[in-house]
Amino acid sequence: MKQALFMLLLLSPVLSGASRYVGRDLCRPCHQKEDRLWQNSPHELAMQEARQETVLGNFDNVRYTWNGQTSRFFRKRQEFWVNTQGADGQPGDYRIQYCFGVYPLQQYLIGFPGGKLQVLDIAWDSRPEAEGGQRWFHLHPDTPTPPGDVLHWTGPNLNWNYMCADCHSTNLKKNYDSSTRNYKTTWASMDVSCEACHGPGSDHVAWARSEKAGQATDNKGLTAVLDERKDIQWLRNAISGRPQRSLPNTQRRELDICAHCHARREQLTDEFVPGQDFMDAYRPVLIEQGLYHADGQMEDEVYVWGSFLQSKMYQAGVTCSDCHDPHSTRLRAPGSEICEQCHEAKRYVTPTHHHHEPGSSGADCLACHMPAKNYMKIDLRHDHGFRIPSPSLTQQTGAPNPCNQCHNDKDTDWAVVQTRSWYGHPPQGFQKFAQALAAARRNDPSAAALLRRLIQDPAQPGIARATALGHLGGSIDPAALSLIRQNLQSQDPLLRMGALNALQTSPQNLRQLALPLLADRKKAIRIQAARLLAGYDRKQLNPTQRKMLEDGLREFIQAQEFNSERPESQVNLGSLYADLNEPGKAEAAFRTALQLQARFTPAREQLSALLEQQGRKQEAQALLLEGLQEMPESAALHYALGLFLVRNHKLKEALLFLKNAEHLAPDNSTYAYALAIALHSDGRLHQALKVLERAHKAHPRDITLLSTLVSFNQQSGNKEAATQWSRKLQALNPD
């Protein structure tokens, strides 16, 4: 065996220069145990050619009907085909080229001209029949997705090259050509193979076959040495009895590698190599509304990284492979037993801790501390925040809690009473940021003080403090400005990113604070700082600063061009060029965005604004009207057209569109406020008050609405109503 291995290594090519990808076959002889674990793992089966042994779905001339459209799955000799509705709305035959994933569902990829691969929106439920599986199902059964919709299987949001490829293959190069709008996507390994995590292996192979083989070196030719758990033990603290790492975890290299695929993030380049810093290739999202609940629980499909960073486990030094075998991806112990690796069973696996019958679902650690949610209809994923269930937080913030998720026949008040009876008070967990983020989201007067307190608490998760920083930008007082300055210099890149987010919505004169971050060691930070300073007067910069700004803007443009098939990136470019006073380039980018996706509202709004600034008002108005013909239900377009007409002194015409916006989006306080102001300007004070009162019911803690109610009632002569609204305002904001 050793001789065969040595011959294989001798026959492999000598690779010089930067380390290159060599493939799993050269890894297997030396790493047979790891290879066996990896076989049939989700990583190995992430993507496969469609063959008899890889396709799980029933292609025996089976029909599936959804929303009046029938698709037929069939075979042609050894090939797998589907007859389904195409981009033109007509049924057509399409050959399945690749299988995507394996459990609990398998999807299928279909090739199109220009190198595009599209993911079929009808998937195969690969669970056992007894669990409801072995059937075809639609990924968006409750949402009509006609041809032209971004979620139709031929649309941009089901494009494999952009949406999926980077995480399902090794060394994926998208190779999109914006001039031809074609892809020439390549990979080193079709699936998630050894080098996806350990980095390109040529130098490691060279090390293994050299005369130094067997001798200790720092990295053995690897770009990523994953040794965070080497010689580490989890011990019991003698005083508290709680688990404690024998040495602090100072690397976090493993988490960076896992974050590459297991984080909700924006990709900046496909040049990422394991061992590099995560934020040199990706810009992660923070605890954003619509993606996370205010307490940090996952809401949309955010994967694992952002949740885990919020956890006490992360703060203690736990890393992914403490719980998951990195080669098989399986847990190191089944179910709740995984927790007992560190947490004493006699302390936690007992009714005095979990307050449920032993063996019941309520006694399961994962059910309470890692509540799960289905994505893609049947893919159950656990939140990795490891938080203590708190029904009282549901009352305060609206975030869900595991008690009511299980006892769904009971209300939150019942759950609060139950937990209070156990502890004598609402459960107190490690994460203490929910109230601050919830207050900021609803524009509550208490938000500023809560956010400042959170930002100054080093015991709280960095990702939560960074999110809080971003909320400070709306109104900068001296205390907020001090925190922004301080965190622009933080060692935590997320806090630097959060401070830049605050400057994004701050007055222009404060943006100079971002100048030092043009030299930040993280690309995600550098380009954010550069974009923030794009419109800064170059005369106020010294030569070094000017060069750093130009370099940062060049990196920003490269990141947008890397994703130039997306309308969001084109809008980012258009907005940048507008700030750089290059209206021709800005207009071209906005128009490209609309060519890519005609229903992408931000592109239409910003292009209209650009045309208006150039005096091309007729074109600007026509662009918004054209959009409303295509999307009459778009509140944003009605609002944009209403404001356009207001600016151009056509108040009565504007009112129609502002009313439409408020009607289509009744929960949007900005639309209601704008309508009320327009009605007031038109002399319809009584109607304006009705709009404000209706909006106040939906947003009872919105200071802007309350202040306007006070003012308008004073103007109407209704002193009693003005006094009542003033008292409510004072109760919310005593200052």
Overview in brief:
By secondary structure, this protein is α+β, with helices and mostly antiparallel strands. 43% of the residues lie in helices and 10% in strands.
If you had to describe this structure to a student in words, what would you say it looks like?
- The protein has 735 residues and is an alpha+beta fold.
- It contains 33 helices and 17 strands.
- Strands 1, 2, 3, 4, 5, 6, 7, 8 and 9 form a nine-stranded antiparallel sheet that branches. A two-stranded antiparallel sheet has the order 10-11.
- Helix 21 (493-504) runs parallel beside helix 22.
- It starts with a helix and ends with a helix.
Please render the helix and strand layout as text.
Elements: H1 2-11, H2 32-38, E1 47-49, E2 62-66, E3 69-76, E4 79-85, E5 91-100, E6 105-112, E7 116-119, E8 122-125, E9 135-138, H3 160-163, H4 165-168, E10 176-177, E11 182-183, H5 194-198, H6 202-209, E12 234-236, E13 243-245, H7 253-262, E14 265-267, E15 282-284, H8 305-308, H9 312-316, H10 320-323, H11 345-348, H12 351-354, H13 365-369, E16 372-375, E17 379-382, H14 391-397, H15 402-406, H16 412-423, H17 434-441, H18 447-455, H19 462-471, H20 478-487, H21 493-504, H22 523-532, H23 543-562, H24 567-579, H25 583-596, H26 601-613, H27 617-630, H28 635-647, H29 651-664, H30 669-681, H31 685-698, H32 703-716, H33 719-732
Antiparallel strand pairs: 1-5, 2-3, 3-4, 4-5, 5-6, 6-7, 6-8, 8-9, 10-11, 12-13, 14-15, 16-17
